[in-house]
Amino acid sequence: MKNKMLAINKKILLFLLAGAALMQAACKKDSGGGPVITGLRAISPAPNDSALTTAGPGQWVVIRGSHLSGATSVFFNGYSSSFNAALFSDTTMAVNIPSDMPFASLDTSKLNTVTVVTTHGTATYKFPIVPPPPVITALSNEYAQAGLQITITGNNFFFIQKVVFPGNIAVTSGITSNVSGTSIQVTVPAGITTSGTIQVVNRYGTGTSMLRFNDFVTGVMHNYDNVNNYSWGAGSSSSSTAYPNNWGTYGVMNASGVGGGDLGWWNGNRSINLNSVQWVPLGYMSQTLDYFALKFEINVTTPWTGGSLYIVKDYDWTYVARYEPWLNADGTTTNYTSKGWQTVVIPLSSFRTKANGLDGTGNPAATMAGLLGSSGAGGIDIMFVNSGTTAVASFEAAIDNIRVEKIK
What we know:
Layout: H1 2-31, E1 36-42, E2 60-66, E3 71-76, E4 79-81, E5 92-96, E6 113-118, E7 121-126, E8 135-139, E9 149-155, E10 160-165, E11 169-171, E12 176-177, E13 183-187, E14 199-202, E15 205-208, E16 220-222, E17 230-233, E18 235-237, E19 250-258, E20 271-274, E21 277-278, E22 292-299, E23 308-313, E24 316-323, E25 342-347, H2 368-372, E26 377-378, E27 380-385, E28 392-406
């Protein structure tokens, strides 16, 4: 009897071991299956967590499916995306679609696809990944004449169909864009007789500029011609030989042999000083400074290697805006020339206090009234100074169309 019981127990043990082995094999088989994608949804909580029908660069999405854990690569439109595996489970993956996706250079056979690669296989899912409409943020020359090439800066400049200038004058050829879709170059067409916005049209929509092209009225404080608030300082010229493609008269600032630490902006032709003008409408006095910018056109033909344009209100250096195009963001320097007339945009938030002994490097005013006073009016003073330690051998720049415009 005892031997019989031992035999039965051995059979039960073998059966249990066999069952455990089968279960383990089944689990391994299940966990080792290739990935499957069933759809994408928004990452936001309900009610925005429904299935998506399209998505774009910079957007967070959740890829849904099975066997997604152990992912080694994720691609949108064939373009690799970085990811954090801690945001993955076997059935979901939270991923940010790359914002720098270069649509112009993507493999067209992989457009509108999402691909997940794991250690056990690859899954590709058809899904529209498209950029939003173009966004225009700046124009290299807001007063460029016909036949001149300008650069439009912004985002989503892919598959451009046309650029539309004021008067509904469209350019459909000769448009070039960079790989990242952040700038395009186009030649200004003939026949523009009015001012207005610029539009960039691509297959995904239309982007309209906040800035106005060819606008000699809005916000203009001084242009040496029909709007003249000149007080004193540098001389003026209307020569189209010295500075071609000008619009009438312009100012010419110049200096030579300006030693290190020379802040004598009142000497020679080192400043342009305007009478009191209205900077911004009174209704904006309680607003922050990022709504408006000071603009002017500049033309620099002599290499500019040091010294700064300081811009202040009413000769008051409490808040100073610095313009130093020869100084790169990484601290290196270059011999700057503008290569023709260029628009300078200085947000009013760039007018800052003194910090660590340097004017214009501290904090901006909290409100428009803090910078401009309750009236929003005052003189504008553009000064060439050398706050550095190295002497500036020569400086010359033509300046025109001084204005303050709304930028948001």
